[in-house]
Amino acid sequence: MTRKQTVLTIIGIALLILILFALWGVKEFFTFKWIFSLITDKVIAETGVDIWIARAIAGFVGLLLTYAIFLMLSWGKSRSVKVSIGLALLSVIVIGFSITMYQMTKDQMFKPDGTPAKCYTRLSDGEIVFADCNWKVHKTFGTPVLPVTEDVIRQYQVQQKGIPKMTPLTPSQDMRFFSYDGKPLVWYYQHPDGRIEFFGSPGRHPQLNTVLAPVDSQIVSQYLQYREKGNNDMVILSSDNALKGLRDDLDSWKPKVRQK
Fold first, then answer.
1. Contact 206, 166 (CB under 8 A)
2. What is the 3-class SS of the chain, one letter each residue?
3. CB–CB of 110/117 below 8 Å?
4. What confidence tens digit (pLDDT) does each residue in 187-238 have?
5. Domain contains 23
């Protein structure tokens, strides 16, 4: 190794150490325990995997990283070779760990602490497109960029599956309207004549363009009363003709003509 290469190597190592010191502090920097704890916490915070899986990943990466740092700081006759191997190994570790973390989190919508992991924008036709969370507006479409919500994720999943976005549900005796934590699983539209139409996702009514509302205890109680009284016509089933329902709605909105 020439004198110039030696100087550049020393400068590079010094810069790397300064950057790491600035990010994480000096305490126990060169110990395997510190590296192990840092990687374990990072994997759990970003992916939410079991702690033992996180420790296995941290142990493997930590050993390689510790060895790479040891080679980079070694002295002796073959110092230049060891430093080169250490730098190459460090590069492989950083790239490999970054790719692994990306693969483990690329489909993650929410972080383990509940904060959104992705942001989205909605196009004029209703299509949902993911965007960089650092953007306030989408650079191509000019539409606002917002953090994802549970409803947005449901709509996106429906969009990806390519199934009809708004298909009426046929209620059954065992149908679950709420999740175990009390959140609605069904949305509805109540026609002017009192008939109820249930849907499996949020959005707008496919014919009336009215925003669907999440079910509550009152609308579910009303539906159960219809069932008990045998008023099955008051619930629109998925097999009913949607155009017929639209026609009936329009007829119900017409002003009544007083008979002379």
1. yes
2. CCHHHHHHHHHHHHHHHHHHHHHHCCCCCCCHHHHHHHHHHHHHHHHCCCHHHHHHHHHHHHHHHHHHHHHHCCCCCCHHHHHHHHHHHHHHHHHHHHHHHHHHHCCCCECCCCCECCEEEECCCCCEEEECCCCCECCCCCCECEECCHHHHHHHHHHHHCCCCCCECCCCCCCCCECCCCCECCEEEECCCCCEEEECCCCECCCCCCECEECCHHHHHHHHHHHHHCCHHHEECCCCCHHHHHHHHHHHHCCCCCCC
3. yes
4. 999 998 888 999 888 878 888 888 889 999 999 999 888 888 887 778 887 6
5. yes
Helix axis angle for 51-72 and 79-105, nearest 10°, is 160
Q: Give 121's strand partners.
A: 129
Q: Against a cut of 0.70, is the pTM above it?
A: no
**90 near 72, Cβ under 8 Å?**
yes
What's the rounded Cα separation, in Å, for the pair 94 and 140?
A: 32
Residue 178 lies in a domain: yes
**Residue appearing with tokens 């109680």:** 221
Are 10 and 85 contained in the same domain?
yes
pLDDT one-digit tens code per residue, 119-142: 999 887 778 899 988 999 998 888
259 within some domain: no
Are residues 28 and 74 both part of a single domain?
yes
CA dihedral (191, 194, 199, 202) in degrees, to 10, reads: 60
**Side chain identity at residue 15, one-letter code:** L
Average pLDDT, the chain: 77
Given a cut of 70, the residues of the chain with pLDDT beneath it are 1-2, 5, 7, 15-34, 76, 162-167, 238-260
